[in-house]
Amino acid sequence: MTQSKSRIHADPAIFFFDEDQEDQFDRLPDPLIVVILNKLSDVRSLGRCLAVSRRFNSLVPMVTDIFVRIDRVVTSDGPGCAGDSDETLTLTSTKPRSLFSHFLKLMLFTILKPLNHLHGGVSGPNRPLLPQLSHHSPVQVLKNFTNVENLRIELPAGDVGTEEGVILKWRAEFGSTLQNCVILGGTRMDHKPVPDNATITSSLSPEENNGSIPESFYTNGGLKLRVVWTISSLIAASTRHYLLRQIIKEHPTLKSLVLTDADGQGTLIMGKEQLKEFREKPLAPSASSSRTQVPASNMKLRYSPYLELPGGVGIQGATLVTIRPATDGNANSGNGNNGSGKKDSEAFVSGSFEGAYKDAVKALLKRRTYLLEMNGF
């Protein structure tokens, strides 16, 4: 018995395009197309749209929401660098080693240079966006967009190198200088099955019941490790902040700017008021490196030797550090203007992370607070 084979014949009409026929897409109004392009947001895809037609070429620069994914951070000292900035972020296909592997080492022993020197400059600004997009810095790429309001930039990796299994996440808010920073860390995260009715718990040592930091926190370099986490995160945040100055200068329409990384380690945010402050107040660069000066700050540290979270998640050595400039409203004073600033800071801390990390912050905020002070650097 032979089985008949069915054949599929393409209808030629499907692939036939009548040049006299009206393109239905042309019937869409310009504002609607701009809304669609805003949903696209990715700068590479928008760059390709520039080459689609004259109409698209005129509409793409009107996009207000832009996402830029960076694959390499380089230092360009030659004439090919973008604008008047020495540092550039470059869109390429090579993922670099962790930038922070030498941050702390150089800070302690020589002069901090937060970016690796790599050979080669950046393509000239007069070259077309495509196909050389992968060799341009965001400063150059964004020159094609004149109405950017919400900008999100993603670096290829977190800046702070950590041991395997260590949890380190930070979120910082900047104006012309640091305004708020929250750091969540842990020496290890565990995953294990738990009953459905499990709740968040944390171990409480006898020393903590007496109001003092437990002895275990000082042993095996526990406290020293938290100090390194804090300094490292602040250096990473202030370096990112410094690199944004040229972009902010050239885009006065910006209302929101987020600089994060593909690892989800750190996030720098600037809102409308912070961007306004950045433009109006002079930036204070650090004397030792290409980053913004970190002001003298007050820190609040909360610690739990082991924190159990919903979903079978457990964090060993869970630590929450919140940081605000020492001159910002005098956090410990009773001034009337301090209330709203304190509420804003608490909201910033509570909303900094998602998922299990948000649960960890919520649990740690209930723990005993240890106050520390830090000089500017």
From TrEMBL:
InterPro entries: AUF1-like, F-box-like_dom_sf, F-box_dom. It comes from the Eukaryota. Pfam families: F-box-like (PF12937). Residues 22-70 form the F-box domain. SUPFAM superfamilies: F-box domain. Gene3D superfamilies: 1.20.1280.50. CDD domains: F-box_SF. This is F-box protein.
